[in-house]
């Protein structure tokens, strides 16, 4: 039996007994090479890595096989201890992340509609005032001022629509409250569907877990259902822009995946789904759709493969940015290292020959991982004790150094832009190192996309955080790298030519960035303080609010950024009797009333209103709604604070309670 046959036999036998090695560096999905090469490239980059291009599937069978391959290889075990990867940091990172979640109280769902994070471009609960002199009223706190985002609370200044489905399972309806008479607000009806809400003129859109509907609310006391559509995919996010409803729907292909049916009875051919030509940790199909809010009719759509974990979706006035993750698993890293000059020099001639032969074997990655371990075990067995121990140390050190040299290639994020001008279509793609936190990790400004990412810790190499600037073709033109060594990003905010990033592990470094020159972004200043900020909000010129935690208690911090090179903490408040704030989970829970110089911050038991004028934080109201506060809004000089069962109305000129409304 020749060497090639032996290799195949060993690999297949290993598969039968279920013995596998080679954990993915980020615990994600296995990959299959398309170019057949696994040696280090001439340019010194990691073997098998190439710039992503986009294509479509040749057939339905190719689509099904693509996702079946990723499903079957999604859970490789950790490397054998015989020749272990240097510094098995995956377990350490998992433990650290668990501690982080426990401390912050954050959801681990990476794809929620209301991700926490920074706010961008001034879309913060803006005041609306009708030209006929009607009172001002607040809108949802959004990322982009021109794009409304779904939330459980919407108002047009006269009627209020409130769906508390996130906080109690017993509700299946949306309450309607009349606030046209400030002296006598009252509940006037309900809609028999609950979900996230968008208000398009006289049409209220309700986005539920499994269906979406539109109601004519021209007469709020008698809402009339205009349309209802099944949602066969998970709703990632939605936007209301220029009279159109945009949805991003996520479908995870199953045993009979074709065609894709994310919205109503409209089908999408699997051969129309866009995918990268390079390997990707793709486990889902993301569909961007434009819908007529008055009729619910699907007007245009396009679909792209994506990753449900460690990815983000961002929507601007020009496009929908979808992302997917590409990670290098343990087998590819080891094989690439052993193909490098230093790695190859460790092996004897027989081991080098067997490693090289792996490239030509047409078997799964699992089988190759098993065979590679067998090769390394045999290589060690040919040495005596001292030589074996020396070789083990050299292998560990070499692999760690190799991983460090290629750290920004091991986990990357592919970005796809869907043009929303005309029919929805993919018009650009790019790639950056690391992974984003959430939608606020990305921001479009002056034909450039800025994105903040965390480069994961692996093989004894500390995590770091970067900010990249991409041009209109999604080519990287500038970067700031190495922020917060051994930390990860907790919040981001981009505002015009400025940027703010918070990283955290033991302390909270607050970074100010100068982004005025896209080709030469730079760190302006840095401030360290206890705790961390999970949400950043510009209150006024040169004043930024951070909301997060310290010692597992909610914390609000005022930053003076008038001198970006020297940011200053002006004041902070810790809610010592509370255990968390919903603002850490979703930016839509936050409200600023600039006219009165206050902001609303819900907590686990009470709801708080703080005055921030003059650079000091002063609690001006603490509202008891019989449980966690959920949302707040203002109409005129009255603040409405909503809980699960009723709303409390405050006079903003005196901060006294006026009335309570049963919901």
UniProtKB/TrEMBL annotation:
It comes from the Archaea. Residues 90-102 have a biased composition (Acidic residues). Residues 126-143 have a biased composition (Polar residues). It comes from Natrinema pallidum. InterPro entries: Beta_propeller_containing (IPR019198). Residues 87-151 are annotated as: Disordered. It holds the Pfam family Beta_propel. This is Secreted protein containing C-terminal beta-propeller domain. Residues 113-125 have a biased composition (Gly residues).
């Amino acid at each position: 039996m020749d060497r090639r046959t032996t290799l195949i036999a060993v690999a297949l036998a290993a598969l039968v007994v279920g013995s596998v090695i080679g954990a993915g560096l980020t615990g994600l999905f296995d990959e299959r090479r398309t170019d057949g090469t696994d040696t280090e490239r001439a340019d010194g980059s990691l073997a098998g890595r190439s710039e992503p291009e986009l294509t479509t599937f040749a057939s339905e069978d190719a689509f099904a096989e693509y996702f079946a391959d990723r499903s079957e290889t999604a859970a490789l075990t950790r490397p054998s201890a015989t020749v272990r990867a240097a510094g098995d940091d995956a377990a350490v990172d998992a433990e650290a992340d668990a501690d982080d979640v426990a401390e912050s109280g954050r959801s681990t769902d990476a794809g929620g509609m209301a991700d926490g994070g920074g706010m961008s471009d001034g879309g913060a609960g803006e005041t609306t005032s009708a030209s006929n002199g009607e009172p001002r009223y607040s809108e949802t706190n959004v990322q982009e001022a021109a794009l409304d985002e779904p939330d459980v609370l919407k108002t047009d200044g006269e009627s209020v629509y409130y769906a508390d489905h996130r906080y109690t399972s017993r509700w299946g309806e949306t309450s309607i409250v009349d606030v046209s008479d400030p002296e006598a607000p009252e509940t006037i009806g309900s809609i028999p569907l609950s979900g996230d809400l968008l208000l398009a003129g006289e049409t209220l859109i309700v986005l539920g877990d499994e269906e979406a509907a539109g109601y004519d609310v021209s007469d709020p006391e008698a809402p009339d259902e205009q349309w209802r559509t099944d949602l066969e995919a998970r709703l990632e996010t939605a936007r209301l822009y220029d009279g159109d409803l945009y949805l991003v729907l996520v479908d995870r292909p199953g045993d009979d995946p074709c065609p894709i049916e994310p919205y109503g009875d409209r089908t999408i051919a699997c051969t129309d789904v866009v995918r990268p030509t390079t390997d990707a940790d793709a486990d889902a199909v993301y569909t961007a759709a434009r819908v007529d809010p008055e009729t619910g009719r699907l007007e245009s759509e396009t679909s792209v493969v994506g990753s449900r974990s460690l990815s983000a979706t961002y929507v601007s006035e020009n496009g929908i940015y979808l992302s997917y993750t590409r990670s290098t698993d343990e087998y590819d890293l080891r094989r690439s290292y052993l193909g490098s000059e230093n790695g190859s020099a460790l092996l004897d001639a027989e081991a080098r020959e067997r490693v090289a032969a792996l490239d030509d074997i047409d078997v799964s990655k699992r089988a190759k991982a098993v065979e590679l371990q067998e090769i390394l075990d045999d290589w060690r067995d040919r040495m005596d004790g001292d030589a074996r121990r020396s070789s083990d140390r050299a292998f560990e050190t070499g692999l760690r150094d190799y991983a460090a040299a290629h750290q920004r290639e091991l986990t990357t994020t592919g970005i796809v832009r869907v043009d929303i001008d005309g029919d929805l279509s993919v018009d650009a793609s790019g790639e950056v190192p690391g992974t984003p936190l959430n939608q606020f990790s990305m921001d479009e400004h002056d034909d450039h996309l800025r994105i903040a990412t965390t480069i994961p810790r692996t093989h004894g190499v500390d995590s770091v955080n970067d900010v990249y600037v991409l041009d209109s073709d999604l080519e990287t033109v500038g970067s700031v790298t190495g922020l917060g060594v051994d930390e990860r990003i907790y919040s981001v905010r981009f505002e015009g030519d400025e940027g703010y990033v918070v990283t955290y592990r033991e302390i909270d470094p607050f970074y100010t960035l100068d982004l005025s020159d896209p080709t030469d972004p730079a760190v302006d200043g840095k401030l360290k303080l206890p705790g961390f900020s999970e949400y950043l909000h510009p209150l006024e010129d040169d004043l930024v609010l951070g909301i997060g935690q310290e010692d597992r208690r909610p914390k609000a911090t005022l930053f003076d950024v008038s001198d970006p090179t020297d940011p200053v903490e002006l004041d902070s408040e810790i809610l010592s009797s509370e255990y968390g704030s919903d603002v850490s989970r979703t930016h839509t829970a936050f409200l600023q009333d600039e006219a009165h110089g206050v902001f609303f911050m819900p907590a686990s038991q009470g709801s708080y209103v703080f005055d921030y004028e003059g650079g000091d934080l002063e609690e001006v109201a603490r509202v008891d709604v019989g449980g966690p506060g959920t949302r707040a809004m203002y109409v005129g000089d009255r603040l409405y604070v909503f809980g699960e069962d009723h709303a409390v109305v405050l006079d903003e000129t005196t901060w006294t309670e006026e009335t309570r409304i049963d919901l």
